[in-house]
Write a structure and sequence with these properties.
The chain has about 550 residues and is α/β, with parallel strands linked by helices. Helix content is about 45%, strand content about 15%. The chain has helices at about 5-10, 40-45, 85-95, 110-115, 125-130, 150-160, 170-185, 215-235, 255-260, 270-275, 280-295, 310-315, 315-335, 340-350, 355-360, 365-370, 385-405, 420-425, 430-450, 500-515, 530-535, 540-545; strands at about 25-30, 55-60, 70-75, 100-105, 120, 165-170, 195-200, 240-245, 265, 300-305, 415-420, 455-460, 470-475, 480-485, 485-490. Helix 3 packs antiparallel against helix 5 (about 125-130) and helix 14 runs antiparallel to helix 15 (about 355-360). The chain starts with a helix and ends with a helix. Bound molecules: 1,6-di-O-phosphono-beta-D-fructofuranose. 1,6-di-O-phosphono-beta-D-fructofuranose (FBP) binds near residues 78, 171 and 382.
Length: about 550
């Protein structure tokens, strides 16, 4: 495979790790834990993996001998920069435990385990992928591992390959499933440990013990680079309003982080829209008002950042989606059989009065997108909904009405963008390269200490890497009960943007000035080499969250 000069230089980069991971180490065992909510229900469903303690790896003078072990690894869900480094860290970790250890990758996501599709990951293969973006080393997929038949089928191949531990690299849903699998294998005494790793560019798998999910850092830096470029373009031509939708299926962490990095004129935060119980018209009015204000100063240009999941957070639409989810979970086949032209009417006829009115009021395209196939976890595929177009059009219409009424005299022309897939496979920033490698290496230590149902955790990551803290968090600790596919299920609680948290507060204090003035910041591309203050910085979100 032909490589660029940067790829060659990057392949030689040695990721930094917490000090405790380099030499000999031992595990420090903390207090027993509880789930974040619904303790009784979660404990009942996870009798074997509930309440385990938090673990921390510390330096030790004692060298321990470990037997060779075969480990399996799965990449699950959407791509996130750094996945290859998790695998490299895991590989180096198990080889350090015992040089005869072997690593197997299951192909194209959790489906590879069930269908027995796998490959052995040798040193040569791993070396090809160190510090690279993407999940192409073994591929990824969204098959949901949730049924006993799948677990049993998976166990057949694990037994055949003598695999004693499985590492699942995924987001909140995939780690929920990892925990269910850990519990199942423990209950039947299968002799297979299951360890999770926190992945997702969305940044919504985080809590007290997991500071951030990997990939968030790199993806936000890539998006911020291009938002900055657009801002420079629009400040040069001074004729367009750019409506930029950013990935992040539910939470607005990506949009908020990009706003903190680039200081756009407007950034919508879905969690705030929900808290303020805003309607779609309120959101449109808010944007149009800012456009009109800038026009008063002759500034007929600007930028609007829109989180991908916005539509689901507008309370009336959220209620509609929730009823649609339940309804389609029970009537999917019937709905599929309805001719395309009649589908809208069919939905209107079957929903409650209130929701059917909201549904009927939506533009045709958006209404149709809300009924498209759910992902395997039962979620609406929000990346398919063109909110940026919807808002640009509605703001344009509102301004035209205001113009007709003599309330506005500016010019309005818009451009729309969606940044999502562009950032998910970028070469990991130093932060993600180091963080991911450390997560993988930590997973090998969790395996060596015989744990199951844990997520690999690396904390204190705003400090230099040698001060990072590596350990494990019981996955059950992050769980609560939620309604999925019309049923109450134990799931890892999604971390949404906290309106009283430091990142949002900083944004809220500054946004009025950013709206009226042109205070754009142009962050430029990710730097992989150079001084630490340029190349190793974490996200603004994490820096503000961790500020003491
Ligand atoms: P994960 O939660 O699996 O990491 O995926 C996140 C994400 O990138 C979202 O931001 C986006 O809505 C979704 O995946 C897109 O899914 P797909 O890759 O299946 O189109």
């Amino acid at each position: 495979m032909k490589k660029s000069a940067l790829q060659v230089a990057r392949a030689a980069y040695q990721p930094k790790m917490p000090k405790a991971l380099y030499g000999n180490n031992e595990v420090e065992v903390g207090e027993p834990t509880e789930s974040v909510a619904d303790q009784e229900e979660v404990q009942k469903l996870f009798p074997n993996t509930y309440g385990m303690p938090i673990l921390k790896f510390v330096e030790s003078v004692k060298a321990t001998e470990y037997p060779a072990i075969n480990v399996g690894v799965i990449l699950s869900g959407g791509q996130a920069p750094g996945g290859h480094n998790v695998i490299a860290g895991l590989y180096d970790g198990i080889k350090k435990l015992n040089i005869d250890s072997k690593l197997y990758g299951f192909l194209m996501g959790p489906g590879g385990l069930v269908d027995h599709q796998y490959m052995q990951l040798t040193g040569n293969i791993i070396d090809e992928y160190r510090n690279t973006g993407g999940f192409d080393i073994i591929g990824s997929g969204r098959t949901k591992l949730e049924k006993a038949e799948q677990f049993d089928k998976g166990l057949e191949i694990l037994k055949k390959l003598d695999i004693k531990a499985l590492v699942i690299i995924g987001g909140d849903d995939s780690n929920t499933n990892a925990c269910v699998l850990a519990e199942y294998y423990k209950a039947i005494n299968a002799g297979v440990q299951v360890i999770g790793c926190p992945k997702t560019i969305d940044g919504d798998l985080k809590n007290e013990m997991i500071e951030t999910s990997f990939g968030f850092d790199t993806a936000c830096k890539v998006y911020s680079e291009v938002i900055g470029n657009i801002q420079r373009d629009c400040n040069s031509a001074r004729k367009y309003w750019h409506f930029i939708k950013l990935m992040g299926r539910s939470a607005s962490h990506i949009a908020l982080e990009c706003a903190l990095q680039t200081q756009p004129n407007i950034c919508l935060i879905s969690e705030e829209v929900e808290a303020k119980k805003s309607s779609l018209d309120d959101v449109v009015t808010e944007i149009a008002t800012a456009v009109a204000k800038r026009a008063e100063n002759g500034n007929n240009f600007g930028t609007v950042l829109i989180p991908e999941g916005l539509i689901e957070f507008i309370p009336a639409i959220k209620a509609l989606i929730s009823e649609l989810n339940d309804f389609l979970a029970h009537h999917q086949d019937e709905f599929n059989a309805i001719p395309r032209a009649d589908k809208r009417q069919y939905i209107i006829a079957h929903l409650s009065k209130e929701n059917s009115e909201v549904y009927a009021s939506l533009p045709e395209g958006v209404a149709r997108q809300l009924t498209l196939d759910r992902d395997p976890h039962g979620n609406v595929q929000v990346s398919l909904i063109e909110t940026e177009k919807l808002l640009a059009e509605m703001v344009g219409n509102k301004l035209a009405d205001w113009k007709a009424a003599g309330k506005y005299s500016g010019k309005f022309a818009s451009q729309v963008h969606f940044f999502g897939y562009e950032g998910r496979c970028a070469a990991p920033s130093n932060y993600d390269a180091d963080y991911c490698y450390s997560l993988g290496f930590t997973a090998s230590l969790l395996i060596a200490s015989g744990r199951t149902g844990y997520m690999s955790s690396v904390r204190n990551t705003t400090a230099p890497a040698e001060e990072w803290i590596a350990g494990g968090v019981p996955i059950t600790m992050m769980m609560n009960m939620e309604r999925r596919h019309g049923e109450l299920k134990p799931v890892i609680q999604k971390a949404l943007v906290k309106l009283d948290g430091a990142p949002f507060q900083y944004f809220a204090e500054n946004r009025e000035a950013w709206a009226v003035n042109t205070d754009f910041v142009y962050p430029g591309p990710i730097q992989y080499f150079g001084p630490s203050e340029v190349a190793d910085q974490p996200t603004v979100t994490l820096t503000l969250e961790q500020k003491k």
